[in-house]
Structure formats: C-alpha cells, structure tokens
Amino acid sequence: MRMVSSSLASRAGTIATLLASLWLARGATAFSFAPIASPDLDLTDLGRVALAGDFDSISLYQFEGQNENAASPSAGSLLTRFPNGVFTSLQETDGEIRAMCPFISNGTLQGIVFGGNFTSVGGVAAQGIALLNVDNANITALPGLNGSVNALFCDKDASRVYVGGSFTGGGAQNAIVWITDWTNMPFSGFNGPVTTIAKASNGNIIFGGTFDGLGNTTTPKEKDVQVIPVGSANITAVATTTTAGFSDPRNIICKTGSQDGPGNTWLLEDNAPGFWQANFGFGFQPSKLRLYNTVQSDRGTKEWRFTALPDGGIMNFTYINSAGETAYCDSRCPLPQNNNTFQDFHFVNTVGMNSFRIDISAWYGQGAGLSGIELFENDIYSFAVNDFNEPLCDGVSTTGASSSSTGPWSVSPSGQSNAQYLTANLQGSNITADSAEVVFKPDIKQSGNYTVTIFTPGCTIDNTCGTRGKVNVTGTMAASARTGVQPFQSVELFQTNMFDKYDQIYYGYVDANDDAFRPTITLTPVAGQTGPLTVVAQRVRFELNSPTTGGLNGLFEYDTNKQVVSSDFSTSAIDVAGAGLSPSQAPVTSILVDGDTLYVGGNFTGDGFSNIFSVSGGNATSLPGKGLDSEVMTMYQNGSTLYVGGNFTNTEDGKSTGLKGVAAYSTTNKAWSPLGAGVNGVVMYMVPVPLNFTEENTTEECLYISGTFDSVFGSGKDKTFSTDNSAIWVPSRQNWLHNLNLTTISVSGVLMAQSEIPGSAPIFSGSVSSQAFGASGAVQLTSGKTLGLEQYPISVQPQTSSVSLRKRAINGQETISGVVTGLIYTENNLNITLLAGHFAATGSDGANITNLLFVNGSNSDIVTGMGDGINSDSVFLSVAAYGTTLFAGGVISGKVNTNNVGGLVLYDLSTASYASIQPAGLQGSDGAVTAIAPQPDSKDVYVGGNFLSAGALSCPSVCIWNTERSQWVSPGNGLSGNVSSMTWISNNNLLIAGNLTVNGNTTTLVTFNAQKHEFTEFTGASTVPGPVTAFCPANNDGSQFWVAGTASNDTAFLEKFDGEKWVPAATGLGAGTDIRGIQVLSLSKDHDKTDLLENNQVLLVLGQVNVTGFGNASAVLFNGTAFTPFILSNTGTNSPGSLSQAFVENPQNFFHSKKKHLALGFVVLIGLAIALAITFLVVVLGILAERLRKKQQGYVPANQQMFDKSSNLNRVPPEHLFGTLHGNGNGRGPL
What we know:
Layout: E1 49-54, E2 57-60, E3 76-81, E4 87-93, E5 97-105, E6 108-116, E7 120-121, E8 124-125, E9 129-132, E10 139-141, E11 146-155, E12 160-169, E13 172-178, E14 182-183, E15 194-199, E16 205-209, E17 226-228, E18 234-238, E19 266-267, E20 274-284, E21 288-293, E22 300-309, E23 313-314, E24 317-320, E25 326-329, E26 333-334, E27 342-347, E28 353-364, E29 369-377, E30 380-383, E31 402-406, E32 409-412, E33 421-426, E34 437-441, E35 448-456, E36 470-476, E37 491-494, E38 501-510, E39 520-525, E40 533-537, E41 539-545, E42 555-558, H1 573-579, E43 588-594, E44 597-606, E45 609-616, E46 619-622, E47 632-638, E48 641-646, E49 662-666, E50 671-674, E51 682-693, E52 698-708, E53 711-712, E54 721-722, E55 726-730, E56 735-736, E57 746-757, E58 760-771, E59 773-774, E60 778-783, E61 787-791, E62 796-798, E63 818-825, E64 832-842, E65 848-856, E66 862-865, E67 875-882, E68 885-896, E69 899-908, E70 913-914, E71 922-923, E72 928-934, E73 940-946, E74 949-950, E75 953-954, E76 958-962, E77 967-969, E78 975-984, E79 989-998, ...
Antiparallel strand pairs: 1-60, 1-90, 2-59, 2-89, 3-4, 3-58, 5-6, 6-9, 7-8, 9-10, 11-12, 12-13, 13-14, 15-16, 16-42, 17-29, 18-20, 19-29, 20-28, 21-27, 21-29, 22-23, 22-26, 22-28, 24-25, 24-27, 30-41, 31-34, 32-33, 33-40, 34-39, 35-38, 35-41, 36-37, 36-39, 43-44, 44-45, 45-46, 47-48, 48-49, ...
C-alpha cells in the first residue's frame, strides 16, 4: 500500500482552489509570478462534475512555474511560494541545501547565502556555497572552497558570514568567514567538520561539530609519506642522447644513483639543454621532489627548474645545501656533482597539477642526465584506477596503496575532473550490491585520527546525469574495536552531482598497515535500483589530523575581538563543557542560544546527562530526565518552547513516554512534553512554515518536521496515520495538522532550512512537491465566479494492484492505484456519489473500506462501502447504473450471497445491499470488465472487457446481461480481444473501442448492431495508429467522436473522426504521455475558429500528459490548436499524480445547446403587450387630433347624465377577445 503524503489538508471540508490566500502574513513575496488566465469552462448544465485519479494533492494551474514535478531525493532547491501558498523552486541544485541566512552588510541586504553539498545551482558551477539575489533570483557562486557546507551564521552587526562544514580553502579547513572574499580566522578552522554555528549573548561565535583541535595545529607527524606513481605517467623528453641504454626517459623511474648505468640512466645529447616531462591521468599536489644525479662518464645535471603544468608556473623549493644550511631556489636549482645519493627539494607552495616538466639548463662534463626521480605528497590517496596508486619503489613505500574491482568497470577519461575514473553501466530491474564493487586500500603508515573523504566526478563530464544513482560506502578502519572509537557507519551517497564533489565519510581513528591488517573502503551500488544505472569510482583520501592542543571536543567559543587564539581553553565554560563530553570527537549536531543559555544537542554523554544539555552561568547543566536516550539531530525555538528532533524515544531516565523522535521542552517550566505521541523513526529537520487555514482565514506559524519515518503515532482520540517522512505540527492547536479539520496547501518531501528576507516572506530549501490542497482519489470541479476544486469527505489511501493491468494489455500501464472511475447517481430520490478503483478508505463509522465507496448526499454525506464479499485485492475499472442497480466491473473476485463472483458484481443502491441475484463469473486468463453500457430503452446491459465466457456461455470480449431474465446473453460471434470503452451512438448501434479482432481482422473500433446482432469494423479504423484507450463523442448524435491511445512507436495519439475521415490533433504531446480519459466541455467564451472543435468547446484530456515546453500535467485542455495545462497533482510518494476519468451528474447535457428559446406563452404575451402598446399610442394620437379639431371648429359639451355602466357587459364575453389567438376564430367579434 502506498503511504499518503504528509498532506497539509484536513480530511474533511471543502476548498475552492483559487486560494488568494493571505499566507504571506509577514510581507509579500520577494518574487513575482505571472497568473494564468481562466479557461472559461461552462459547467452549469452538467450539474456536479467530479474527477477521479491517483493523487493525494491537487491544484488548478494558476501561475506560471507551477508544476507536478516529483521531489528528487538526490537534489535540492531554493524554494519560495506562489500567491496561493504552493511551494515552487527558484533554482535547483544537484545536492542538498543544508543552511541559509540573509547576508546584510552595512545595513544593506546583499542576498541570501546558502550552503550544502551541491556542486551546481541552476546550472551555475558552485562548490558548496553561493549567493541568491532576491531581486531577480540570479545565483552568484562564492568560489574558493572545496567540500560541503553544513552551517551558516550571518552576523549583520559585523557584516560577515561565518561558514562551517567539511571543506578546505582560503587557507582554512572546516570553518571560515566571508566578507567580500574569504577571510581566515586566527585559528584557521578545525581539524574536523563543523555542523552548527550560533552567536552567544556576549557576541562570541560558538562552533559545534566533530573536532578536537584547531585548524592551525593540524599537520601530520610524518610528512611526504605518499609516493606519487610517476611510472603511471606518459613520459617524454627532448634532446635525448642516441646512445643505446641511455635514451629511454623511463629509465630513471623507481631507480637510484647506485643503479647508474645502461637501462638505469637517462642522458641528454652532448652539450645540449633539454627537458624530461611526465603527463598524468590524475591531479596531485606534490610536497617533495627527490632527484638522483648521474655520474655516468663524469656527466651530470648542474642546474634545472621545475615547471608545473598545465599552468606553466616555475616552482619554488627549499633544500639543504652542502654546508647543511636551508637554501632556496626556483629557476636555477642545483644538483651536486658525483653524488651517489639523492637530493630532496621541498615545494614552498602547495600547487595542484597533473603534469610537470624538468628543464635542464647546465651540466657537468659532456652533458646532463639523471639516474632517478621520485615525487611525494602529504595526502594519502587510493585510486580506483590501480595504475594511479602508490608504487612499491626504492623501499620508501613497502606496502603501497592499491585497489581492486569486480564487475563491468571501464576507465573513463578525466575530462574536467581531477583524475580518470572507473565507470560501470548496470542493467536490470533490481540491481544488487554485488553487481559492481571497488575496494580502496590506502597505504597508512601511522595510526591516528583521520578524516576520510571520497571523490565523485561530475555527471556532466560523461553525460550520465540521467542514469546516475546511489552508492553504498562501507569501511574497516581498525584491526579490532577500540574503546571510545566509533566504528565506521555505512554511508549512502547520491552520485547525481553535475560537477566534481567530495563527501566526508568518516572521521576518527585509523590503524596503520601491518602484515595482518590494512584499512579498506568499499563502494557498491545501493541494492534495489533499476537500470540503466551508471556507477562511478575515482579516489579516496585519508587526511591525518593532529592530536588536540588543549581539550577541545565538539565545541569552541570564538572571541571575535581577539586576533590571537590561546591554546588554553579552560577560560571558556563552553569549551570546558565540550571537553567533558564522551567519546572523543563527540558529535555536536545542534546548538541554540536563548538569552544567556546555550543549548547543546548531539550524540554524547556527560556528567549526569546524555545527548542534550545547557550551559549557563558558567556551568553545564542537565535537562530534566538526564537528557534524552539517543542522538539529538536538530533543534528549533519558538518562544519559550524548544523543539528537539532526533533518534530518541524517551528521556534518559525513562520517565517521559511519547518522546519518540520529537519532543518539546519548556524553557520556563523546565519540563518535557510530547508532540502527540511522536513518530516511528528519526527526525532530522524542523523548519517553521506559515500556513493559511482557509476555513478560518488565519495564518499561523507551523513546524514542518521531516526525517526518516512512515507513521505518526496516535494519541487520545487521534489514530496513528501514515506519512512519507514528513508531518506538520500546529503549535497553537497542540496537534498534528493531519488530525485537524483545517484545509490548507499540501506539501510532501523534505524541508531542510529557512531564511528570513527582510520585508518579504521567507525563503526555504529542500526537495518537495506541493499543490493547492490535499485530496486523495477524487475531487469535484466547480464553476462559480471562478473555477475551483472541492474535496470529498473521504480519506483514500491508494494501493498498488498486484494485478498487472489497467484495462489489461490495452495501454500498457502495469499497475493500478487510486480511484479509476466513478458515478453520480441522482435518480429514485437518491443522491449518491460512487468512487471505485483500487484503494483503502475509512467509513464514517470507522469501518475499513476497500476499492469501492459511496458518499451518500441523501444522508449527510456519510461514507460507506459495499460490505463484506468482494476480495480486497480486487480492482474496479468500470461502473454504470440501471434503475437502482449498480453494475461494478473490473478484476473482481469474492463470494456474495454464497455465490462466487468474477469480473462483475451487482449492488442495489436503494437498499444499500448486494443484489439478490449475481451474474455468473466472467472467465478467461484475466477475466477483466473494463466497460459497461446499458442499452437505451432496453432491458439489456452490455459488458465489455477481456474475457472469454460468462459462466458456461461463450461470449468473448462483450456479453449482455438481461435484467428482466437475470441471465447472460451472447451478442453473437465474430469479436475477440480487449475492450476499453463502449458508447451507444444510437438506440441500436454500439461503438466498441480497444485492441480488437473482428471476423479475423485486427482493428481498434467496432460497431455492433443490436437488431442484426452483427459486429462490423468501423470504417477507417485501420488508420488509427494504435489501440484505443480513451473515447468520447464529439457531437450530440454520435456521428463524430474523439479517440486516444498509444501508437506502436510508444507515442500518444489523439484523433477525431469528423463523420467522414480521421483528423489528428495538433502536435504538442511529449514522450511518456499516457491518455486515460477525454471529454468535450463547453465554454462561456468562444475561442478562435478551428476545424477540430466548435468555437464554444474544448477537449479535456486526462492522464499523465507531457505537454511540450511544460512537462507533466494530470489534465490539459485542447482548443483545437494547442494544449494548455489545466490540473496538476502529486501522489503521497512525491511522484506525479494522474487523472483517469471525469464523471458528471447530468451526462446527457454534454452537448446541450446554449442558444436560449422563449416558450410559446411568453411569445404570445410579448406580442400582446406590443399590440396593446400600439393600440394605446393610436388612441392617444386620435384623442389629440380630435381635441385639435374641436378647438379649431368650436366645442359643445356633451350630455352629463350618467348611463347604466353594466347594461352592455354581457354583450361580448371577455374570453372571445382572445379567440383568434388559438387559431379557431373568424377574426370578428359578435355584434
């Protein structure tokens, strides 16, 4: 069963999705978004309109930039929010964004600094840190660091940014400052990674992490221990002698002066300058050069210089001269004559290179030459390409670094990377860990604490970004367990980085090599991935860290006013508190300052506390319960409440139940309290998110909690609910949002960090999918003043069907999940909405419901199921009603009324019970019913699908259930195959679509004449490019219609039959499009004239539709010329959702004429009113004319005697006045 996302929507209530929500309570967003015009749908005559599909969150497409892209676990994004509250990506990265803050310099916002383990942002190369311009969303890289950033603190008072992580650069390691460029602190960082930074109330900066010494004390006890394999390089030379035995420039590799002679010495031509050059397949930073001069025939090199390539710089060296003094040289470095031993030259500067050249400018005797060369570095590497590993040479390296590999590895060129590397291309649907393996074996000459990092070349080098995945890294660091030393923990790493990166995989003790033990690092693919999968392996580095210089352990307080840092850490209560932690290099993961109190969380123990404590008044103090019983990974403060997340389940003393993964600590009451009953896993991130609750029109700050968990435990009246690694806590309601009757946006995925933007809404980082609100399986589409979506009072948990079909073998979808189909039934004084498919739900009475449910609008929208009888693994694919009987078909099995059912079940909607008589089961290899079509003005219900017989009756693909006799009837012979849909285009003509065979001919459309009982291939159906999976009429008489499906070349097609010929729709559908439903809808405003659709019509296309230039949408609108995204959705597993069907209350009105005609009575009344008005006008004019005449001719008053007013009333009955209006009068009234 698929777990529903941590939807931020309640599971009851409704919402119109044009949420012009005022979620931006703290200011408008810093970024603007163009709104999308309404599609002007007119749904009035259809009544209620519902959409069914496989989704857990859904939106109308309202703003440019909205999408249904899945959240990528291997990448992150800078996130902001649309005006409707939905999260959207500003810029995407190829790694995580772990920290961010507003960089304010001299009172002016410079941008948002953000850091993580990425190598690119929006296609811009950026190693671990970059700056976002909040005015235009442009990215500026902050170059100079190599590694990853874990923590940032923007100090607006000092106009600087403190940066912590696992990196080198700017002369520092793991901690540095950005002002206008990289600025080193007096202590040059730390000898281990920094994970958290805060500013104390006294202005000092507090660093937390996994370190026990400062950066400027981190130097190996033994330098120059790693031999660079010169023998693996391509060696060339100029001006080489032609003397046999001395002309090969490779003679001097792994040789010494004592081996001078033919085959061991390289000579130049007599009295000629020349050079010796080595080109490597990897990069390195040499620390020492060792040269052996030749004494062959009294010759030798006198002066030389070392040029680093490809930069071309001449290197500076120090060396010990013949007087025993330290000397310097650059372009004219000397070698002593007749010296049978080596001369060492130490590089003054650390410079990276992948080639070098030794230019010889002066010589002894008749010419120059050398008898040996060795090159050393401080760093200890093991390369996947074994040729690049340390050679066994001259006794310096007695064991040598090495590597071994198993699997289909090949060497890939370095490109822009530091070194060539191994690549394995793996295939298959379930790749195992032993499909490919590389074991790195470094040459560790001294035991000690090491930082171990692994290097991954970028995917843009070899164009494998689309096939990169995850690897698992394991290791063995010591011959046996050591007290206080944590063992190597396996690490899963994504290799989807666009540019080169390195990840720290271990910090701690490593044993030196001996005859019985050698440390190893093993890289394999994570099991369970699907090919094609590209795995790469390049190199591993071991960096020796010096012992601590005075008691640091995970915490360091830096006084920014001091330019010299004392090695006496006892003066800082914070440093002293860290020194008292166990184990050595105790991981401090989170620190938080509250006034004069510092809260510290991590994975450690101390004097009377575990994993969390506070420092105030110069003392380290335990929190109640002696701390927590396992690691703290994150903390967030909201007022007087400190929220803590991690891997704990209780306080250390075991007296606070319910603290599973997350807890709240009151800084005023000094007490722990649970968040509900916690979660069933680890909480890694807590990020504040303002949310607008639409029912109450209020905005509250909530806490988005994410990590690795799939359930939130129930407490009180609230039940345990499933989630996908995230949940929302509402502090003001003291409950999880899932349990509240509130509706707001839906978000699933991981939020990792947040940053305020002065004067604007905050910005976020993470990897999320987000829609306007949470709803599972079905929604209503409403059209009032604006279009909207309305939620059903249901909670659907889609399940993945074990039945490998959706309308089996028709469109190739392998699994079924969610709501597939539905019906709105309003006859016989009932008001029922039915949803069917493959899902689990809960009834209003708490009963479990599987695969088919009813929402009874006649009874307060109570939700019920069919009851026991149908097996839970059944899948419903089609429903229809005949009278009060529901016909529900699919891949169905079970037992109803002691009778086995298969493929089809009947249910009485009036009694809410199974029909007393059930059809005999449909038989066949699949037995699937995919279409049901009651015949108009008939007792017959036609059932189509993929079956061979009904009980003992042979009726392949289509069979008839006669409701009067309650038995199956065969329609006739000649048809076989898979039916996808059936539609009556007249009372006696049924159009059947699918992947069919009629009378031996393969086709996609067949007509059936119910009077003649004949199947006939539809005219021109052979030109349809593939099986039809979706069908709808295009006009009211069924003479025109639309079809869709997938062609033989795996591309989607959409075509219209205009009554004479097939007309394909315009191009605009991309690869992977899966059309599952189509329907013509009316518009309130006409669009431009097209040949495919009437001006007041649009075609709704449902499924997973890839719109060219946009991407996936769950529904699009086609106006005859172009496809426009309409509805977007996602599933609870952060993947794109889909819609499968639109069903309406009044399906007979899809083509109802919008032209208005007045009733005859109104026409008569209007005509009468006009006649009376004309009569009145004539009378008035007559009176005026008569008065004028009388005035001109004289006036004599009439007789004033009153007559009998009623004497003439009976002469003309009033009803005779209107007799001619009925057509039966003679036009004259009685005299």
